[in-house]
Design a protein that fits this description.
The protein has about 300 residues and is of the alpha/beta class. The protein contains 10 helices and 12 strands. Strand 9 and strand 10 form a beta hairpin. The two termini are about 15 Å apart. The protein binds adenosine-5'-diphosphate (ADP) and zinc ion.
Amino acid sequence: MGSVYGGIEAGGTKFVCAVGTGPDDLRAITQFATTTPANTIAQAIDFFRQHRGGDRPVAVGIGSFGPVDPNPASPTFGFITTTPKPGWANSDFAGTIQRALGVPVGFDTDVNAAALGEHQWGSAQGLDNFIYLTIGTGIGGGALVNGELLHGLIHPEMGHIFVPHNREVDPFEGSCPYHGDCLEGLASGPAIEKRWRKRGEDLPADHPAWELEAKYLALALANYTGILSPQRIILGGGVMQQPGLLALIRRHTQQFLNDYVHAREIQDEIERHIVSPALGKRAGVLGAIALARQVAK
Ligand code: ADP
Ligand code: ZN
């Protein structure tokens, strides 16, 4: 009988925890609201403790909202660091789980974990260089670069980049508490809601919101393409549920790149280059299981 792993997708609104070995073998899954760190982390620990014998995870992976410290050599490894979310700044997330369960704990950003899951089982199998983005309550991105998850100084913050913002076309000042009109401030779900005074899911498909949204995201994708040269771009998150948005983003990305990047993937096969996560809503928690598999002895 093989080993079983635990995964935690830790979001600012909810936690998803699962036990299993992969997408075809999820033995248990649960979710609950993100409240205080003490309370929420205790619920995750209780969930894993319920599993006995062969279903007891031999390692746990955590893909977390952040900013986080994902550097195993750092004294604050596994901490959520500077988040504005009340109570969670400077909290020892991975350490608390590790001490309670006595198993190795893998820890990374939510989007790096999702990227790893998509690499193992989803839309990025066999690729060494790709990015995974979520467009939801926030915007974030994870990257595999030469086969390794990219961390760099701390970890990428792909949502907090700056794209051209023409205030005559779009007078909205942006919703990011740190930067105003960074990409997240212009194109996240809450930015859409604040600009148009309606949630994305309540705006019709022919609303001008989507053309603007697609342009901001396509500008970002053109920038990531220029910097990282990804072999594929995976777009997840609630905003991408909007029918038609993916097709608009593909078209605008091609237009911004303007045939300068000579690749069949961009010029002729954009439908296979800018894609949805194959693991869908499970990308995060399966990615956390993939992180657990990496640290299991
Ligand atoms: P989180 O980022 O908290 O994990 P989601 O990825 O589900 O959550 O993103 C939530 C955001 O997605 C909300 O701002 C919501 O308004 C937006 N959203 C959900 N469904 C749609 C839709 N069909 N079209 C556009 N936006 C949507
Ligand atoms: Zn920002």
